[in-house]
Amino acid sequence: MRGTIALLIVGTVIVTLGAAAIIVYAFRRRSREKFLMWFGLFSILYGGVLTTRNAVFRLGFGRPIGVGQVVERLISMLTIVPGLLLFEEFYGRGWRSSIRWVTGTYGVLVFVAAGGVLFQMPFDIAQPPGIGLVIMVPLVLIVGRLAGYLPPAVPNSRALFAGLLVFFCAFSIDRLVHRPLNSWHSGIEPYGFLILVLCLGYVTSQRVIADERQLVSLTDEMRAAKRIQEAILPRQIPSLQNIHIAVRYAPMAAVAGDLYAFATAHPDGIGVLVADVKGHGVPAALIASMVKVAVSTRCEDERKPARMITELNNTLCREAHEQFVTAVYLYLDAVNMIGRYSAAGHPPGLLWRRSRQVLELLAEPGLLLGVRPNESYAQSEVSLESGDRLLLYTDGLVEAENAVEESFGEAALSAFIEESQDLETEQFADLLLEEVLTWSRDGRRRGQADDITMMVIDIMGSATR
Description:
Elements: H1 2-28, H2 34-52, H3 55-61, H4 67-78, H5 80-91, H6 98-118, H7 128-147, H8 157-178, H9 189-232, E1 243-250, E2 258-262, E3 269-277, H10 281-296, H11 305-319, E4 325-333, E5 338-344, E6 349-353, E7 358-362, E8 380-383, E9 389-393, H12 409-419, H13 425-439, E10 452-459
Antiparallel strand pairs: 1-10, 2-3, 3-4, 4-5, 5-8, 6-7, 6-9, 9-10
Helix pairs in contact: 1-2, 1-9, 2-5, 2-9, 4-6, 5-6, 6-7, 8-9, 9-10, 10-11
């Protein structure tokens, strides 16, 4: 009787630990922590069958009959499936995916055995799948070892494999020696499983703790990266006598691949750059930093947009292989009222002619930066007059999507520019950003899917020398 009560306690503990693992996985939902899910399912199924087949439990709730008995036997056979998937999480797929083959073979055997249970065959065939594992698992491990397969490195692997060894030995002994075919979860196997659960619990807790430490470290690094990126962005917008500039920068995450920069401002003109690194996060931010440094070192090219874009392309091709950037560089000659610009795969700038109520595209075709070195980039000129408004932006502005995946679009942007032409530079920039973010909001949170950068440039008149 004491042994029966002890087994009931063991089953309850195993189910509780399995449920805890499932709850932790449900709250964390990280793909690399699927071992928590398999561990939880394995423990719940095994512990549940162990508990329901306990004599004390059946004394209180009765022995299952009919459909209940069939369901219980099917669950017993399926218990090993998450166990094999758990083993794969730590051991890997094995030599030539041998663990996958074992799982698939066991699944076929379970299907055959389940057919025997459902059709009430006169002999018990629920046992052969378990017996098959006693042969297949050691065979796979031995073959893998001889073939030179190396399982992935697992912290605390000795504790893990000690638990697996104890359980497998108990599992094998019970099936081959100590108990009849129709007596499940008796003998020493449950105690071996409890030892395995405790070892897995230890390994799992250590892995979760390590993940949390890594997450804290990554969070600190992201904060540092954000501070560094903020430091490379212009601290203030240059002020010119007849040119007003407003910039709005809305990164999707802590760090972004969008970039804006100003070449050295002179009383008679200024050069501006807007760029967008393909990708997101820290890698894109690193490339953006490289572009910013490259711009700051090309002072002799600040009045030559095509030359500036060409040198940026050569720098990326040389220093950052297979990293691609779109960019537009514009030099504003405030005395002669001329804008010179060159672009590399970037959305065209927009020029609103207030005097004529016309919107013009500053479209200059050009290959993405970073594709091939020594690429030639064209340069165009546009005359400017008092009242003109220029808008340079990254594609996150027009590609922002709402809840039904409709883009904000160029038509809406054009309409907004016309309707808001009377707003001052800063007000215009604020309202446009809010309009786009509102568009991509689903009612509960901001649905921004890309970095957004925009630069609004208002021409107030010609500068005096």
